[in-house]
UniProtKB/TrEMBL annotation:
Residues 1-21 are annotated as: Disordered. This is Integral membrane protein. The keyword Membrane applies. Keywords: Membrane, Transmembrane, Transmembrane helix. The chain crosses the membrane at residues 40-65, 85-104, 111-129, 158-181.
Length: 229
């Protein structure tokens, strides 16, 4: 008579789910693995989104007030030109910072590295070449030149303050992207993500088009001629 120990399968063989549970744990751990400097990346992206929003709002208010001036413009031509450039940069950084936050929330990683590096470089170059001169011109404006129109003079003082806040916020955004540029490069080299193929995916979904082309071959059928008697 065979003993019970001879016919009883081993516990490891009796539990077919043990291997699958271990694989699932490994997959979960792999999916939850964070990239290097993940927290720094998130913090810098949030700073960029916040100060880009401030710069966008205040620059837009100044542009609207300047365009609605009853007796011309509140800003000189050179300052107006630079404000419009700063407004465009704030739109760029505002869009990409929120897209990066959406991508981090969805896939725990920002957008494509090369796109972010281009945005960082463009932001730093344009802001450094525009904001300091714009600040200097802004604070050299003279509200008293609108006197005796006290309303216009007071509006000019408000424009100087609002524009100052917008330009300083733009400089903060440029500093954030200046710090973020080497952080992105070092994190990419350390993780080796620059060697992986980059997929074109929009955060939250994919856009895919499938199409097929078929060539139908038409055969000509010749009908026999029927001769009449």
């Amino acid at each position: 008579m065979a003993s019970a120990s001879d016919t009883t399968p081993l516990l490891a063989d009796a539990d077919p789910l043990a291997g699958s549970e271990q694989n699932e744990d490994n997959i979960t751990t792999f999916r939850q693995k964070k990239e290097p400097f993940f927290r720094i990346t998130v913090a810098l992206t949030i700073f960029s989104a916040v100060f880009s929003t401030i710069a966008f709002v205040f620059d837009l208010i100044v542009i609207a007030i300047d365009s609605a001036a009853p007796h011309g413009y509140y800003l000189f031509w050179g300052l107006r030109y630079r404000v419009h450039h700063m407004f465009g940069i704030s739109v760029l950084t505002l869009i990409f910072s929120h897209l990066n936050l959406a991508s981090i929330k969805h896939s725990r990683r920002p957008l494509w590295l090369w796109v972010n590096l281009i945005v960082d470089a463009v932001t730093v170059v344009y802001v450094v070449g525009t904001a300091p001169e714009a600040l200097s011109q802004n604070f050299h404006q003279s509200p008293d030149s609108w006197l005796p129109d006290t309303g216009a003079a007071n509006t000019t003082r408000a424009v100087i303050v609002l524009l100052g806040i917008g330009l300083v916020s733009g400089l903060v955004v440029a500093f954030v992207h200046l710090v973020h540029f080497p952080v992105r490069c070092y994190a990419s080299l350390k993780s080796g993500s620059w060697q992986a193929p980059q997929s074109w995916k929009v955060p939250g979904g994919e856009f895919k088009i499938d199409f097929s082309i078929k060539f139908l071959r038409q055969e000509e059928r010749s009908e026999p001629l029927i001769e009449e008697p």
